[in-house]
């Protein structure tokens, strides 16, 4: 069993993986000012909650889009596990054929999602990751990473909408009872959720046209559960996709 960690702009996802089986997933807030010791305590507390003995873990692997804390978190995890923690980046073997202008610029989380998607699902495929930003990864029929799309995430859209209206702050991302809202809060919830679902549906249609008419569509990320049920296109919800990819890369690269 290994410790798999994804450091995002808003949350840090931590899970224990045994092959492609996930024992648990938890989320911590991404705090750029925390010290190595503070993050080590966070990791230890999560493992204690799930009664996981750090000595029983073979090692760990991290993907990160927050370079300021990547090394700090790696040292924190090594302090608890007493084993090497890999970082997805230069020098890591992925087996991924990236067709972008600058393959090195592709975020570690997108690499990991693509590696897991290619192993688990039929290509061509679209992978939506709904986090701080919503990203779309496009894998062609030959399992090559062709590129994708990035646009503001659901939470960012809601924050932007409420930023200048103090009385509207703190709105949760729960779908209202009716599509047509009956008050301001319901209208805002409906607008954010259903516009996000409609955007996914529209992007799927356009991407499928470019790929030749068909594609497997997978959604993952912290906000996927809020939006995917309201989509009208067929979308596979896979909460564990990123952790599965980290597990694949760990065993591909372990010494």
TrEMBL record:
The keyword Transferase applies. It comes from the Bacteria. GO terms for molecular function: ATP binding; metal ion binding; pantothenate kinase activity. Substrate binds at residues 107-110, 184. Belongs to the type III pantothenate kinase family. PANTHER family: TYPE III PANTOTHENATE KINASE. This is Type III pantothenate kinase.
